[in-house]
Design brief:
By secondary structure, the protein is of the alpha+beta class. About 45% of the residues lie in helices and about 15% in strands. It has helices at about 70-75, 90, 95-100, 120-130, 135-160, 165-190, 200-215, 225-235, 240-245, 245-250, and strands at about 5-10, 15-20, 25-30, 55-60, 80-85, 105-110, 115. The strands form two sheets. Strands 3-5-4-6-7 form a five-stranded mixed beta sheet. The structure holds glutathione sulfonic acid (GTS). Glutathione sulfonic acid (GTS) binds near residues 105, 106, 117 and 256.
Amino acid sequence: MQPQHTFRASGNDSSKNVRLIKGASRTHFCSLHFRSSSRTQLSNRTLSCYYTMAPYTLTYFAVKGRCGALKIMLADKEQQLKENLVTFDEWMKGDLKASCVFGQLPKFEDGDLVLYQSNTMLRHLGRKHGAYGKNDCEASLIDMMNDGVEDLRLKYIKLIYQEYETGKEAFIKDLSNQLKPFEAALAKNKSGFLVGDQISFADYNLFDLLLNFKVLCSTSLDSFSALKSYVDKIAARPKIKALLECDDFKKLPINGNGKQ
Ligand code: GTS
């Protein structure tokens, strides 16, 4: 594969160039990784991109979609991610689809391990990076909360792709019922996280979905004090803050049909 195009990533002048590589899909490395030493001349807030081999590879469409939480978790855990962006035309050729276990993206690679199913990816990374509780009971509670997030995400996806024009108002009206269990869990737990006293993959997943809800309806969290401060607190974690402010991340559409 030959380099096709080069552009400069956002950040200060220490940013490395990012290569878009010609091939079945465009490839870029976006590291959400902070270097603070004076030796590197990078500030704490610099988002930089690298040519170095990334440990993880994500193949997906150019949307946040089902991978926002994964990117947020990797940023918070200071992990690099190599992204293969697949265009609609490339997908329509069918070869990639045929190679996917369930005929769908995202696809995630950790060395030789190839995973499909976005929640499986979150669990895998949760296990590897200390975001899956401190014991089996916490892990099961995290699974439960994450399954609750998935149920709600599926409702959101149905709204976006099937009934946006006719169902948006009803969805927003019902959102307070849907958010109650999460508000209750946070109010009860007091640590600022859904389960235990440390952030888990279910928190990244819920946080990502709540950001979508704030875009759908800016007042959606107004009557939920615990959820509101939860979102503010997670958004203020330094690496997550930088990711949310990063142009590459900001410009990604939330969904594939332009609705949000
Ligand atoms: N349960 C899967 C997951 O969580 O990863 C669902 C994946 C999925 O729905 N993928 C969609 C897809 O590949 C893209 S997106 O909805 O995640 O943006 N669609 C293309 C197709 O041919 O089905």
